[in-house]
Automatic annotation (TrEMBL):
Family annotation (CDD domains): AAA
SUPFAM superfamilies the UniProt entry points to: P-loop containing nucleoside triphosphate hydrolases (SSF52540)
Boundaries of every AAA+ ATPase domain copy: 34-175
InterPro entries: AAA+_ATPase, ATPase_AAA-3, CbbQ/NirQ/NorQ/GpvN, ChlI/MoxR_AAA_lid, P-loop_NTPase
Protein name: MoxR family ATPase
Length: 327
């Protein structure tokens, strides 16, 4: 079975567990294919945790959930040195972050020092503790969740931490039809009538091979320039539209351009193409940018939100004309 067929089977597995949320499932596979970390934001009860668990199960990878709380310490995440009573020497006990897929549940409930402990891991796939640097698993991936509704006892993620996430996915409530299907599936599980089984043989080794394929996607010079123009537009909105001169305090960094490149390549690969199109770029842009731009007071006062600004940028930046011989 080809790598793309294996990922199609993974998608079917996720759909057998999660009702609706197609955008979430697609973007989770983009994250797996790129090794890019993801921040999932939505009200409670939208199957964020269930989706991540199903993803790890479908890849047959090691998985660990870390429940972030205000009393969590950095050592509870990355590990720490403890005294071996038999030998009298210090030995390092690996923390829960040493897994292929790590679910950082309610990440904004952890204090800043714990969030900072994740920066090195997310950026360099390594942790330093006890004066020694230790490498994380090759497939290491952080999928974090946060609840936008509850603010008591939370610590807003700093910009440096947000920038480490390749994608920021916003979830919404299911449709009435989807919610009805959720009820029916729950009753089937309650009465033992749910016979869904794992039907994917995807492994971490195959994921790494697929990542190599994604890295070889063809990206034309026009598409590269288009990506850069979209990202740099967040820093020069006044040049593109005088009415938007003061809607952003901070634009996106070059890391956004890199994230857009990797995500667009993965999206094209998932759709059976070996080259990237403007549609691929536009599809991934909102999830790449929404957590990397900071709106000004003027924007809030005039009713602008991040989604509207990103869509306006897509309208303002000219779409490149590609060489049709690639189609």
């Amino acid at each position: 079975m080809s790598a793309q067929a294996e990922f199609a089977a993974l998608k079917r597995h996720l759909q057998s567990v999660i009702v609706g949320q197609e955008a979430l499932l697609d973007k989770l596979m983009v994250a797996v294919l790129t090794g890019g970390h993801v921040l999932l934001e939505g009200p409670p009860g939208l199957a964020k945790t269930t989706a991540v668990k199903a993803l790890a199960e479908g890849i047959h990878s090691s998985f660990q959930r870390i429940q972030f709380t205000p009393d969590l310490m950095p050592g509870d995440v990355v590990g720490s040195e403890v005294l071996d009573q038999d030998s009298g020497a210090l030995k390092f006990v690996h923390g829960p972050i040493f897994h292929d897929i790590v679910l950082a549940d309610e990440i904004n409930r952890a204090p800043p020092k714990v969030q900072s402990a994740l920066l090195e891991a997310m950026a360099e796939k390594q942790v330093t503790a006890g004066g020694q640097t230790r490498t994380l698993p090759e497939m290491f991936l952080v999928l974090a969740t946060q609840n936008p509704l509850e603010q008591n006892g939370t610590y807003p993620l700093p910009e440096a931490q947000l920038d480490r996430f390749m994608l920021h996915i916003m979830l919404d409530y299911p449709s009435p039809e989807e919610e009805l299907e959720i009820l029916r599936r729950d009753r089937q599980r309650h009465f033992g009538e749910d016979h869904a089984s794992l039907n994917t043989s995807l492994t971490p080794e195959q994921v790494m091979q697929a990542r190599h394929q994604v890295s070889e996607q063809y990206v034309s010079e026009q598409i590269e320039a288009y990506m850069v123009q979209l990202v740099t537009a967040t820093r020069r909105l006044a040049e593109l539209d005088g009415d938007m001169a003061e809607v952003l305090q901070v634009g996106a960094s070059p890391r956004a351009s890199l994230a857009l490149l990797h995500a667009s390549c993965a999206w094209a690969w998932l759709n059976g193409r070996d080259f990237v199109t403007p549609d691929d770029v536009q599809q991934m842009l909102p999830d790449v940018l929404r957590h990397r731009i900071i709106l000004s007071f003027t924007a809030h006062a005039n009713g602008w939100d991040a989604e509207q600004i990103i869509q306006r940028i897509i309208e303002l930046v000219q779409i490149p004309v590609l060489d049709e011989s690639r189609d």
